[in-house]
Design a protein that fits this description.
Elements (H helix, E strand, L loop, with lengths): L5 E3 L11 E3 L1 E8 L3 E3 L9 H12 L7 E7 H6 L10 E6 L13 E4 L2 H9 L3 H4 E6 L3 H7 L5 E9 L7 E2 L8 E6 L3 E3 L2 E10 L35 H4 L4 H14 L1 E3 L7 E12 L14 H7 L3 H8 L4 H9 L4 H9 L29 H7 L18 H11 L7 E3 L15 E9 L2 E12 L4 H18 L3 E15 L3 H8 L8 E4 L14 E4 L14
Parallel strand pairs: 3-8, 3-9, 5-6, 5-8, 6-7, 18-19
Antiparallel strand pairs: 1-2, 4-10, 9-13, 11-13, 12-13, 14-15, 15-19, 16-17, 17-18, 20-21
Helix pairs in contact: 7-15, 9-10
The structure holds NADP nicotinamide-adenine-dinucleotide phosphate.
NADP nicotinamide-adenine-dinucleotide phosphate binds next to strand 3, strand 4, strand 5, helix 2 and helix 5.
Length: about 550
Amino acid sequence: MSENSIACHSNGNADTQPPLHRTYQVVVAATRDMGIGKDGKFPWKLPSDLIFFKEITMTTSDPEKKNAVIMGRKTWESIPPQFQPLPGRLNVILTRSGSLVMATAENVITCGSIPSALKLLAEPPYNILIEKVFMIGGGQILGEALNAPECDAIHMTEIESHMECDTFIPPIDLSVYQPWYSSAPEVENNIRYCFVTFVRLKTSTGGPNSIPEVRCNGSILDFKKFKVLNFTFLPKIIFEKHEEFLYLKLVQDIISNGNDKGDRTGTGTLSKFGCQMRFNLRKSFPLLTTKFLKPTLVIDACYGSWCSCCTEGFFGEELLKSFCGLLVDQPMLRFYKKKTFIYGTEMHPGNTLTGLADREDGDLGPVYGFQWRHFGARYTNMHADYTGQGFDQLLDAIDKIKNKPDDRRIILSAWNPSDLKLMALPPCHMFAQFYVANGELSCQMYQRSADMGLGVPFNIASYALLTCMIAHVCGLVPGDLIHVIGDAHVYKTHISPLQEQLKKIPKPFPILKINPQTKDIDSFMAADFELINYEPHQKLEMKLAV
Ligand SMILES: NC(=O)c1ccc[n+]([C@@H]2O[C@H](COP(=O)([O-])OP(=O)(O)OC[C@H]3O[C@@H](n4cnc5c(N)ncnc54)[C@H](OP(=O)(O)O)[C@@H]3O)[C@@H](O)[C@H]2O)c1
């Protein structure tokens, strides 16, 4: 799709030239039941929304051009006369009756239908003068235009508070649109709202050209290609808000400005200390898209920690399979159960690192799962039964989230100093705090040491999943994941592939769906999770530093 959003749509008649049409983006504010107006006016007073609307519709990348706003006659009439026409934009008013008498013709044109308006804007001089086209309401216009194939994106201000309305628009067809970005909820004049931008991924719903969902049920990844692959047509202020850029910018910053440091593996790193990324879990799931997250790498990046817990039931076998199961097939799990782990005796003969020469392959010691479920118990080996021993932090956290949601001590700690000497590798992601507000569960995770290239994409996904799972069993919705990193490093061997990755444009994050029937943290199965529309760029090889 070009920046100018001019597209050719064939009418299927081979004898006639296909007409040139503009595509467009919708900008609208709507309640949860898609109410947009009352008594010919906005039902709410939201100055921030008006600022957002102005910024989106007025900004152009080319200062010589302007954007067009298309609206129904009644929406035009709802604009206070002193603000008509909306300044700095071409105002296109749709009227069938032709009853509209314009006092001023400058920056205003009328059209008798949506197709004729889009055609006009695709022809000279408007094809040159007009950069982007926005459809701005009201109900009748968006009834026709919201889910139409020419609509590339929908910028929606979602009004979460209840508001009385008499004008409505249809629901967004979520089988063809996916969130590109969504803001954290804000409150103004006692109204809770957030900004969400949806982008069109597919041509139509259910038609011959439609593309089935990409599902990931724990065993098979079934990737299909999307219709739209490039989202640079979005306004820059929206395009740049995709949260994957937080990761990409941090990687770029470390490569450009990081300290040159030695490390335990002898590979050499560039490193920065004290970094933070914030991911909004409300609408989508932060599984990075600028590279393919290969199933084996999920395990590698987790240093086998989830699986170690899994094999020993420290965390709940099915829960951990679920953790991995989203991205790992069952043969892979079996492989990791049997094979020596990367920090086991095979990679480090004699296990000189930790002095654990007697350890059985695959026994990492009292790592994450053990600490989460049996903190304080005496560790012997990975086969022992620890039922009832130590402190179950996970259940305690879930109990507090349900029954004492304002508690400021809802914490899961994998860092147990007296057990560190027994671990093959001390925990990297060592500490998580949970926070409940407005029916949402947020998690802040502290990671002492983070391999940005290989590990961090999976650390983000793992804790996003944990937050979603705990929110689910507590009857809450996921809020934010805040990822705080101590030593954030790029291995020198990863610089080149990461520079390749930095050239890629993110795609929308996938959506995570959890089986509503599963209510207990220990009874999750891989099949309880569905990852919809994960369509990453291709895989990038990065070698694991050990
Ligand atoms: N929340 C928001 O973001 C938002 C945005 C915009 C508007 N609004 C609200 O929505 C309400 C207005 O919406 P509405 O549904 O009543 O009216 P509307 O869609 O703004 O305008 C309807 C008029 O547009 C013309 N029209 C409709 N479909 C057409 C088509 N396919 N081709 C050519 N002309 C067409 C007709 O004009 P003629 O009768 O002249 O033929 C029709 O009467 C107001 O309350 C307004 O405040 C809210």
